[in-house]
Amino acid sequence: MSPDGTVDAVVIGGGAAGLSGALMLARSRRSVVVIDSGTPRNAPAAGVHGLLGLDGTPPAELLRRGREEVRRYGGRVVTGEVTSAVPAALSADGDPRFTITLADGRATQARRVLVATGLRDVLPDIPGLAQHWGRGVVHCPYCHGWEVRDEAIGILAVGPASIHHALLFRQLTEDLVYFTRGTDLAEDTRARFAARGIRVIDTPVAEVESDESGITGVRLADGRVLPRRVLAVVTTTLARTDGLDGLRLPMEDLPGGMGRRFVTGMAGTTEVPGVWVAGNATDLTAQVGASAAAGALAGAHLNADLTTADTNAALAAASSRTTHA
Fold it and tell me: What is the pTM of this model?
């Protein structure tokens, strides 16, 4: 930390990407503060899957270990919600500065910012659906597929992406129903579904039924109930942007209204000098392992940028001393 209290980096988001980036920075002896809102996307899940060596680890446990590791190297992890993140006046030597303010009024000055806020999933507005998110309602065959294998699964279509979704889940069960929900389904696709034993239902979905054990079925507009134990849906994925408007980070919409993300270049760089983005906030389909890797890469590049700035400042100071002498 500099004499004026400015830290080398603030990481906004305490998930896999943010903690991995902070770990790389802390191990490089950078002063780093992680701001964690405590609302990870995968909180409802029983375990993290597809993460080599840690498969099945409860999400909360994985993050607890990550926070301990960051703190072990001198990094700080604080709980709070960012309400404002804005560029501040450059340092005397032209180095970027940012002010990060939390909902409780605390503020931190930083030389660099790593945005790792993750995303939020938007489900179709179907009565009875949202309450089962992360358990009976799933979105990723690689994250949850093994756990729902051989169950009676229903695909709640939202658009073209749901077709591929159905074929992936067909690998996991022979009892698969595709609810078109008013989306187009070409005849050749229907033939492919029929060849794989996927039943197609064109009648509109009215609601999801359940009891104390979980989802029991899908009620259609005509009153019929199709027994289902699991429902899979392609969610609309939106990068979390709360409090970040002041950074003016570029964003883009995915085709077909499937989501919105921060636009980044190599290793999470952005058009805003001094700001990186990593994890689900820019890669909406990344699993935990990919998000962690992206965060580590962004942290390494952020550290390299700071190293260049430190060297430039040292050289300028040395030149000034020589000139003065």
Answer: 0.94
